[in-house]
């Protein structure tokens, strides 16, 4: 997912790749420090007065994935919570939510299904069925290396899913990175954010 930022200090436009794992960046024009990850969800906090985050499962650089207790059904769900920076920066947060909701059912068999999405206390959140997942980036950082035949199987599954999604939507993913491709505890490949990349966002941060 790519973003266009405007530095509030000098009003210059900056294009960044949100897949990059950075907490802040320096404006190339005025050299002011721009903080990117403000307002992160903490363990123990609740979303929508119902979903209590128990522990962090993964992080993709601009949102956290949590094991969360649904206090109404008493079941564990996978809760994705975007940093508040995103909510404050989007001109129309509702459009972001609608895009994620509309594409999710057609994102292919590897797309993480989204059951519920919304905004609560300035957090954009997505609720999914619980899965123990880890990003490819983290697995590689920890030294995990796939055998060639395993890697080819994963790539094949990925391409089948993306082809299915393209047939249904006539759109591509456009922002797949090792941060939003996951492997669950059953060895299945999963991804998120299908359909979000083509949407243009204007972000103003300082």
TrEMBL record:
Coiled coil residues, start to end: none
Domain of life: Bacteria
UniProt xrefs under InterPro entries: Kinase-like_dom_sf, Prot_kinase_dom
PROSITE patterns recorded: PROTEIN_KINASE_DOM
Domain Protein kinase: from-to ranges: 51-206
Protein name per UniProt: Protein kinase domain-containing protein
Source organism phylogeny: Bacteria, Pseudomonadati, Lentisphaerota, Lentisphaeria, Lentisphaerales
């Amino acid at each position: 997912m790519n973003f266009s930022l405007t530095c509030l200090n000098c009003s210059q436009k900056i294009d960044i790749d949100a897949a990059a794992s950075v907490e802040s960046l320096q404006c190339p024009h005025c050299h002011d420090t721009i903080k990117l990850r403000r307002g992160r969800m903490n363990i123990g906090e609740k979303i929508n007065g119902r979903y209590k985050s128990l522990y962090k499962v993964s992080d993709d650089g601009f949102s956290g994935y949590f094991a969360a207790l649904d206090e109404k059904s008493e079941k564990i769900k996978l809760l994705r919570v975007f940093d508040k920076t995103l909510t404050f920066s989007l001109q129309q947060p509702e459009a972001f939510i609608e895009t994620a909701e509309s594409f999710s059912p057609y994102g292919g068999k590897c797309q993480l299904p989204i059951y519920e999405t919304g905004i609560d206390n300035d957090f954009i959140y997505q609720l999914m069925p619980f899965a123990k997942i880890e990003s490819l980036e983290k697995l590689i950082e920890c030294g995990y290396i796939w055998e060639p035949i395993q890697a080819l199987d994963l790539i094949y599954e990925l391409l089948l899913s993306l082809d299915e999604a393209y047939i249904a939507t006539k759109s591509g993913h456009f922002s797949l990175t090792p941060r939003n491709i996951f492997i669950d505890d059953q060895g299945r490949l999963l991804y998120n954010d299908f359909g979000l990349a083509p949407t243009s966002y204007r972000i103003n941060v300082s």
